[in-house]
Amino acid sequence: MRRVGLGAPLRWVALGAGDLKTCPLPSLFYGFCFAAMGLLVTMVFRRTYEYTFALTTGFLLLGPFLAMGLYEISRRREQGAPAALAPTLTVWRRNAGNIGVFVLVLGVVFLVWARASMIVFALFYTTELPSLSGFVGQVLSLQNLEFLAVYFGVGLIFAAIVFAASVVSIPLMLDRNQDAVSAVIASFNALRSNPGPMLVWAVLIVSLTGIGFLSFHVGLVVTMPIIGHASWHAYRELVEPPHSP
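Structure tokens predicted for DUF2189 membrane protein (245 residues):
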């Protein structure tokens, strides 16, 4: 596992933006999918935003799986192969068993988070539930501080676990057919070897995702492909290449 500098995550984002610029059509397809999912969640649960917030933050938990096609676009571009959309749609078949195990774990974590989110709302939200805009206003004005502290504290725990387990795991499974356990261990080693850069990387992921949501999901069309491509470059820079026999 390589050590990188604090500025490395900014370089990954720049490289990710370069992949988006070079391969706009397949990349933006995934961006539109992310934006459509965000809009669908908001519309379906617009009157029960306690579910909206739980499902929306699920983007951060399920993102490593949802971005597999973007990893493949970056991989193919790196190898000089055509970065068409069609091959990226079934890239999971390359290591379906191990990726399936990891995605199952992500799904369980997401369901536990959704339940924990509902419990926090029930126990700590002390005022009558306002409209969605009213709730956002309360968050921005720091009202109901006990609820905010507990909600975001619990969410941070779940996000940190998923982030630590998935920094390089799915790119590693796609690129080298690595088993799920070894890939997760490699991700934890990447975090242990580079705590500062990984913190910067996590902040960038949350910031870019937040920009996407705050722009009424439109920004996700661009920010999510950048994050996906950048994650591939993070993997390539963090993980040592396989030794030649």
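Residues 8-238 form one domain.
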